[in-house]
Amino acid sequence: MHAITIPEPGGPEALVWAEVPDPVPGEGEVLVEVAASAVNRADVLQRQGFYDPPPGASPYPGLECAGRVTALGPGVSGWAVGDEVCALLAGGGYAEKVAVPAGQLLPVPRGMDTLTAAALPEVTATVWSNVFLVAHLRPGETVLVHGGASGIGTMAIQLAKAVGARVAVTAGSPGKLRRCAELGADVLIDYREQDFVEELRKATDGAGADVILDIVGAKYLDRNVKALAVNGRLAVIGLQGGVKGELNLGALLAKRAAVTATSLRARPPAEKAAIVAAVREHVWPLIEAGRVRAVVDHTVPLEDASEAHRALESGSHVGKILLAAPGA
After folding, report:
1. Model's pTM, two decimal places?
2. Across all residues in the chain, what is the average pLDDT?
């Protein structure tokens, strides 16, 4: 088969389409013929040499895919050759084939084409696990989503609205904020022109956000705590603004608030399977009912993954950038 390899870390040009050995499904795994993958920030970090795959994972980038089951490893039940699926991966999505633990498979939602389904696994698993399983967002609460126009952000807006929450977002342009509003965002904050702490305070009559989903990290830590409501929960899932920040424990104590930080890629398969099962139970019905949709900016041929990385790093996209495998 062919896959995108990274012979040496570097810029987008470091991604090389090359012939590599076919994967073989092991115990509890299935082999998926990939129709499409999607680009995530973690792929960029891996390409740059800053985010190695977990032990035992495929060395090729790609944290999600969609395609067709072509073989079952020992001990697999509930899936059959020919099933159209999408999958959460620890790596290997930028390839024509990938071996996946069966617990990380999801059926392609009814009414959705397989290519588009590649936009779903990583964002749905990340948002559901952090906003709902960890931060316990409830109907009537306010959630602040940083990077509302990103793949994560566009899914977080929709899922929060679907459960009856009020959604505030930050984004870097009026155009992106308009797209967030179309998805249901109630409070629109241009982080280049406005102070999100002050804007959120005004929008909530001084109460603040019950939940904040943050992709920035250290740069926003102090301001995020200020923006939290009493009993608020800050869920950190990204470090685009650095890894070390100063935390005012007094402010946290006064608000009886909580700060959590999680990653998805390195979790054990059993934990990923539990998250995927929760996504299938709670999110898939919303997608199949048309209440939540995949937001795709554009699609690039898999062998031209370097072009997709340049687009992601430019920050001009809204939602996901997909990679279509040859013949898809």
Report:
1. 0.96
2. 97
